[in-house]
Amino acid sequence: MVHIEKFEKFSGVGSSFKRWQQKMLFYLTTLHLARFLWEDQPVVDESDNDTAKRVAYDQWGQGDFLCQNNVL
Questions:
Q1: Contact 17, 10 (CB under 8 A)
Q2: Does the pLDDT of residue 10 top 60, yes or no?
Q3: Fewest CB atoms less than 10 Å from the CB: which of 33, 46, 54, 55?
Q4: Rounded CA gap, 12 and 19, in Å?
Q5: Which value, to the nearest 10 degrees, does the dihedral of the CA atoms of residues 47, 50, 42, 29 take?
Q6: How far apart are the C-alpha atoms of 28 and 14, rounded to whole Å?
Q7: Contact criterion met (CB below 8 Å) for 69 and 51
Q8: Which of 45, 43, 66 is nearest to 56 (CA)?
Q9: Which pLDDT tens digit goes with each residue over 28-50?
Q10: pLDDT reported for residue 6
Q11: What is d(CA 12, CA 61) in angstroms, rounded to the nearest whole number?
Q12: Is 36 exposed, middle or buried (0-12, 13-18, 19+ CB in 10 A)?
């Protein structure tokens, strides 16, 4: 899924933060990225060899990066 258009940034001058916040939440929800605003990063020890935990950790990191990139 490729999204060419980025969401508008909050300018702060004459804008309503609450309105921008609601629009941003809706935008992130449509991209399936809103959960990264509330969920904590999974904890994986260095000694843990469970590949499912490693994959979940890596996927969470990538999703969090995309979420932050869309907000900023």
A1: yes
A2: yes
A3: 46
A4: 12
A5: 150
A6: 23
A7: no
A8: 43
A9: 888 888 888 888 888 888 777 78
A10: 62
A11: 29
A12: buried
